[in-house]
Design a protein that fits this description.
Layout: E1 10-13, H1 18-28, E2 34-37, H2 53-68, E3 72-81, H3 102-113, E4 120-130, E5 136-147, E6 163-165, H4 177-183, H5 185-198
Parallel strand pairs: 1-2, 1-3
Antiparallel strand pairs: 3-4, 4-5, 5-6
Length: 199
Amino acid sequence: MARTLQPGSKLVVATHNPGKLREIVDLLRPFQVDVTSAGALGLPEPDETASDFVGNARIKALAAARGSTLPALADDSGFCVAALGGAPGVHSARWAGPEKDFSTAMARVREQMGDGPEQRAWFVAALCLAWPDGATQTFAGRVDGETVWPPRGQRGFGYDPMFLPRGGTLTFGEMEPLDKHAVSHRARAFAQFVAACLG
């Protein structure tokens, strides 16, 4: 049976990424969970050595749970482009380099794609809730769409300005946060997490 977080529970969000932290805190707000981040606690970022999103989320969640002795929620997510065989995928953050410059990363995606007709892309998010004793629960979400160039919008973070969700007219970079939360890959994974762990 899944373990649950009760109102007032302390939870570490296992990220040092301010954009990702902001989105997860927004999603958690209705549940009265006392949230802090791995960055705020001074916990180191573990090496993400898994070959998939779920594995990397588990690595980050377990490191934060053991380092803080609190339950920890980690997200591993990425931008996948059909014309690049699913890249950058689990290496999405690495494509932005040590400076985390996603304008450079988006330009690299565009350069490697070229001008071919294949524009399909998708975002994947995996969430892992880990406990200090090593127990974990994982959840995954995906949203499909296509790339756009040039990037549009200043909202969101990462590759959001170059992703147009299927059936939409605004990129993730143009959407109001609440509108993005309604359809995003992270929101889809989060809905599963809520049903299992906060319900």
